[in-house]
From TrEMBL:
Swiss-Prot/TrEMBL keywords: Signal
Solute-binding protein family domain residues: 88-416
Protein name, entry field: Peptide/nickel transport system substrate-binding protein
Gene3D superfamilies linked to this entry: Dipeptide-binding Protein, Domain 3, Periplasmic binding protein-like II
InterPro entries on file: Peptide/Ni-bd (IPR030678), SBP_5 (IPR039424), SBP_5_dom (IPR000914)
Secretion signal, residue range per the UniProt entry: 1-26
Organism of origin: Amycolatopsis thermophila
Length: 515
């Protein structure tokens, strides 16, 4: 067996972080305190944070939106592995993992002494029950994360996953919220009465407010807040007003509030943290719809966009213009063009190949993508394309696009722990309902083989990115950092797991300083 390193892409991420801070100037980096002095959190204090959508249910395998559920589930549940604040895969309920020499099995050592919130042990048998339940559930998200696993079995204090073929990305898959570990005794009632493995118990779940209280039997005895209240506030402006009034202590913020972000940056009563991610704003296209199946039409749509104008006038210079699918990390191309507009060429192409093109586009209301859509609409009109904007509930936008009800989806593409998964989902998966070309499919398949973090994997990912720059399927606009704003008396913002992957991060590290 060989022990597999959990950390990857640290150098690339650190380099990008330095560049982003240099560009943003006044942006506060992901460190605590304006003076650089550490402050201790008060374990008797509760923390109130804001989410954009309410929790719908509490069963991990039933999640249909890992992004929306991440903050809620991360308080209630642990996973076998997690993602640290610097993008590294870290132990959680598994203290480590090893991969067999042939790559066909992965062994995870289960943390001794950990208990569920009902006091029952988190042992190999309980973990096997959770993974087998997820694997055989038929639930789209949970079962897809273990698609290559043929069997899960306990061997002493360890769990072994047998694979149909080597899968270097499996450790990244195990960080998924859909594979959170719950008490087997509660499987039949997890949706409404969860018994978790995480640092907080669920106390009360209302329509727009959920309360958690610290579970003092949690395996990690480090100091943490007495509890969390998570308030569902759909719009960015309302979340920021709640922060100003003291109703909440922390919020994630969309880039359409760039002017307000800069105001908070200059106010010593708050701390702004921006974290580079792989995420991008993109106009996803359904290539089943003519003439979107024509590569030249897609190139014309890309050439119509003035990305610098959108970034500087709408997004505060915080969304780096780009035409490539990964905004950072392995697979990001330092030499890719930024995508300057060529309106005359784009207009001529549309006139010749797609005259009178109408583009029915769906977008999640209350998001930065919705604001971006309104600014993109006149740019496309300049080349003779009518963009019909349909703003709907955020939980429905992607499913509506995937089902073929709209020709385009303007969205912030979810970043993934494994950049290959981000590419697969968007260019060969559900967010590419028109399928993928043989050339792109071959490049994606080649990128599956090398281990995470290896030079060979990075080269394979770069090959995919170069193909998508040359032959765009979706129209990338810019790279999106995650933005968080906290009151100055909140510490732990630099330690939040998943913060460089998902905007609603794992907030369990947050604490308030004693008054």
């Amino acid at each position: 067996m060989r022990t597999t390193s959990a950390r990857y892409s640290g150098l690339a991420r650190a380099t990008l972080a330095g560049l982003l801070v240099a560009v943003l100037g006044a942006c506060v980096p992901a460190t605590e305190g304006g003076t650089g002095t550490a402050r201790d959190g008060d374990p008797a204090a509760r923390v109130t944070v804001a989410m954009s959508v309410p929790a719908s249910q509490w069963d991990p395998i039933a999640t249909v939106n890992e992004v929306a559920d991440n903050m809620y589930f991360s308080l209630l549940y642990d996973r076998l592995l997690t993602v640290g604040a610097n993008g590294e895969i870290l132990p959680q309920l598994a203290t480590g993992y090893t991969v067999s020499d042939d790559g066909r099995s992965v062994r995870l050592d289960i943390r001794p002494g950990a208990t569920f919130q009902d006091g029952s042990p988190i042992d190999a048998a309980a973990v096997v029950a959770n993974l087998e339940r997820a694997r055989t559930s038929g639930k789209a998200v949970a079962s897809s994360r273990l698609a290559g696993v043929t069997a899960v079995r306990a061997e002493g204090a360890s769990v072994v996953l047998d694979l149909a073929a080597p899968d270097p990305a499996l450790p990244a898959e195990l960080t998924s919220v859909a594979l959170s570990i719950a008490a087997p005794s509660a499987f039949g009632r997890l949706g409404t009465e969860p018994v978790g493995s995480g640092p907080y118990r669920l106390d009360r779940a209302g329509q727009d407010r959920v309360s958690f209280t610290r579970y003092d039997g949690y395996w990690d005895r480090g100091p943490r807040a007495a509890g969390f209240d998570v308030v569902a506030i759909p719009t960015t402006s309302t979340r920021l007003n709640a922060l100003r009034s003291g109703e909440i202590d922390w919020a994630f913020v969309n880039l359409d509030a760039a002017a307000e972000i800069k105001q908070f940056q200059s106010d010593p009563a708050y701390r702004v943290t921006q974290v580079p991610t792989r995420s991008v704003f993109a106009l996803n296209l359904d290539t089943r719809v003519k003439p979107l199946d024509d590569p030249q039409v897609r190139q014309a749509l890309s050439a119509a966009i003035d990305r610098n104008l959108l970034n500087n006038s709408l997004l505060g210079g915080m969304c780096a213009p780009s035409v490539q699918p990964l905004a950072a990390g392995p697979g990001h191309l330092d030499d890719a063009p930024a995508g300057g507009p060529d309106v005359a060429r784009a207009r001529a192409t549309i006139a010749a190949r797609a005259p009178g093109l109408v583009l029915p586009t769906v977008v999640a209301n209350g998001t930065a993508a919705a604001t971006l859509a309104a600014a993109l609409q006149p740019q496309l009109a300049e080349i003779g394309v009518t963009m019909q904007i349909n703003s709907i509930d955020g939980r429905s936008a992607r499913p509506e696009f995937r089902s073929g009800h709209f020709a385009a989806l303007l969205q912030q593409v979810n970043a993934e722990v494994d950049p290959l998964l981000q590419l697969q989902l968007n260019y060969a998966g559900p967010d590419a309902p028109g399928g993928t070309s043989p050339q792109l499919a071959g490049l994606l398949a080649a990128a599956e083989q090398p281990p995470l973090g290896s030079p060979q994997r990075t080269q394979s990912l770069e090959a995919v990115s170069r193909e998508l720059v040359a032959q765009p399927v979706h129209i990338v606009i810019c790279g999106v950092p995650n933005t968080y704003i906290a009151a100055a008396d909140v510490v732990g913002t630099d330690k939040m797991p998943m913060s460089d992957v998902l905007n609603p991060a794992d907030v369990r590290t947050l604490m308030k300083v004693a008054a």
